Amino acid sequence: MKHARRLFKIGMTLFLALAVTVILANWVWAAEPSTSGTTRIIMNITQFDQGDNQGIAVSAQLTDNGKPLGNDPVEFDLSANFFGAQQVNLATVQTDATGTATITYRPTAEGEYNFTARFRGDESHPQVEVTRTYTYSGPVSQYQPEAVGLTAIRQWITPVIFLGVGIFWLLLIVIAVRTLGGIRRAGLQGTTKSKSYRKFGQVVYQKRSSGN
């Protein structure tokens, strides 16, 4: 019965560890759901080429019932694909008097780019976001904008998380193996003691028989 309780504890610990791993994976890779209401975001994406200054201009106008919302933060995200699809924050910009916030982005390659503008809401307005895809045809920048920080994220965040989860699972396996080894040794000791008792009984019985 004691061994069964130990095995049950090991099983529950492994189950909880698996649940934590799944939750952590969802936290790293899951995208937040969008909401809608009277608050709206109108996104406009244009390409510009002014000599050495080329790229994409992304603007988002935040309105409520058609009226602009000024001095509110709008987040601009770019969809990226490293260890799964994720959204990387480009910048957070306050809207002006017309409810408009604008950023510029310099792509490093031609192709499709998915931009998201998000307003997280406040006491009077719900959260709302909009995503649009823009096909960029060049020219391309020779460097990655500092605001995106994709290289640093690739090098540190995800590997550190996987390393921590791997160490956690390794410790659980070591504990489980040592526990099972202890259970096995306890069983062998019990068997040895049982044989010793039987031998002792036989010796006592033989002595008594000889005395008679």
Provide mean pLDDT, rounded: 77
The CATH architecture of the largest domain is: Sandwich
Question: Which stretches of 5+ consecutive residues score pLDDT under 50?
Answer: 29-36, 143-148
Which structural class should the secondary elements be placed in? alpha+beta
Distance between the termini: 43 Å
The number of helical segments is: 2
Order of helices and strands: HEEEEEEEEH
Report the helical percentage.
40-55%
The name CATH uses for the topology of the largest domain is Immunoglobulin-like
- Secondary structure: number of strands: 8
State the major sheet: 4 strands, antiparallel
CATH class type of the largest domain: Mainly Beta
Give the amount of beta strand, in percent.
Answer: 25-35%
Tally of separate domains: 2
User: Rg from C-alpha positions?
Assistant: 32 Å
Spatial shape = elongated
Strand-helix topology:
Layout: H1 2-29, E1 39-50, E2 53-64, E3 67-68, E4 73-81, E5 85-94, E6 100-105, E7 111-119, E8 128-136, H2 150-211
Antiparallel strand pairs: 1-2, 2-3, 2-6, 4-5, 4-7, 7-8
List keywords for this structure.
8 strands, 4-stranded antiparallel sheet, 42% helix, 2 helices, 2 domains, single chain, 212 residues
